[in-house]
Structure formats: C-alpha cells, structure tokens
Design goal:
By secondary structure, this protein is an all-alpha fold. The chain has two domains: about 45 residues; about 80 residues, Orthogonal Bundle (Cytochrome Bc1 Complex, Chain D, domain 2), CATH 1.10.760. About 50% of the residues lie in helices and about 0% in strands. The chain is built from five helices and no strands. The longest helix is centred in the N-terminal third of the chain and has 42 residues. The protein binds heme C. Heme C binds next to α3 and α4. The site of heme C has 24 residues, from α3 and α4.
Length: about 150
C-alpha cells in the first residue's frame, strides 16, 4: 500500500493536469465560438433598405465618382482591382450580394475602417455597388491568346 501510494498519486496528478488542460481547451473554444457568434450576429440581423435589394437600382456613374471622392479607391484601386500594398481586396466586380457588401462596409472584420450611414448613406453604397458591377473579371490564362501560342 505504502509502496503503491506515490505511484498512484503521481498518476492522479497527471490525470488532474490532463483534465485541467482539456478544461482550459474547452474554455478557449467556447470563448472563440462566442466571439465569432457575436461578430456574425449583427451582419445577419441587418435588413436591407427597401428598394436597395437589387444592384440595378444603383447609379453606376455616380458610384464611380463616390468611389474616388470618398476614398475607396485608395485601398481597393480605381477599378476595385485590389492592392497588395494596402491589403484591400479585389471588389470589382463584387462577388457578394449588395446586402453583404453594405454590412461589410458598416462593420469590417479586419483592417478596413468602418463607414457609418452618416459618412456613406446606403444609397451611395448601392451606387458604388452598381459601378463595381460594371467591371469585368480578369481574363483566365486560357482566354489570353498570347499565352496559348
Ligand atoms: C484604409 C483602406 C480601405 C478603405 C479606404 C476602404 N477599404 Fe474596403 N477593405 C480594406 C481591406 C484591407 C479589406 C480586406 C478585409 C479587411 O481587412 O477588412 C477590405 C475589404 C472590403 C470589402 C469586403 C471584400 C470581400 O472580400 O468580400 C468590401 C465590400 C469593401 N472593402 C468595400 C469598400 C468600400 C465600398 C469602400 C469605400 C466606401 C472601402 N472598402 C474603403 C481596406 C479599405
């Protein structure tokens, strides 16, 4: 009994350490899930302004002006082509629906600064979206004649 005891307790300590570590992991996981859930929630709740649900309601010409005057181009390039220098992604043509586009600009996830409805009304964003829709996707290698000689 006396001989076995230290061995047993060592196993006990190891077991308890193991349990503590997995509790810690579970706790970290829960925190991560909560943080992401809270971030995702407002984007899902936001409802689009009536009349703003299709891109054709935006004025592309006006959108092009605002895209430059209000600084989107500084990080995303004049054609929304993106920039490795600023980390601004390619947004022309947009690959996400208008609703998601607007909610991203209101609450960016990473480095982009947020634009409030005061600074950039929904209507202006619909115009910018319409402008970005007019930009063609870059051609694929197989569609460039020079590369297929
Ligand atoms: C200061 C630089 C900066 C400015 C100005 C800026 N953006 Fe961004 N934007 C970013 C960066 C960087 C990202 C990549 C994700 C991130 O870091 O938030 C991004 C991501 C986005 C996305 C998400 C793209 C995707 O991959 O789905 C949209 C939409 C967007 N920007 C629209 C705009 C619009 C519209 C404007 C002008 C009203 C604007 N941005 C102005 C830096 C900027």
């Amino acid at each position: 009994m006396n001989i076995l005891h230290p061995k047993r307790s060592r196993t006990g300590v190891a077991l308890r350490r193991g349990l503590a570590a997995s509790c810690w992991c579970a706790f970290l996981l829960a925190v991560t899930v909560l943080v992401f859930a809270r971030r995702a929630a407002p984007a899902q709740q936001s409802s689009p302004t009536p009349g703003m649900d299709n891109a054709s309601s935006g004025n592309a010409e006006n959108g092009k002006k605002i895209f430059v005057s209000d600084g989107c181009y500084e990080c995303h390039g004049r054609e929304g082509q993106g920039s490795t220098a600023t980390g601004g992604t390619r947004i022309g043509p947009p690959q996400i629906p208008l609703e998601g586009f607007v909610s991203y600009v209101r609450q960016p996830a990473l480095r982009m600064p947020p634009y409030t409805t005061k600074a950039m009304p929904d209507k202006d964003l619909a115009d910018i979206y319409a402008f970005l829709k007019t930009i063609p996707l870059p051609p694929q290698g197989k569609d460039i004649p020079l590369l297929n000689k």
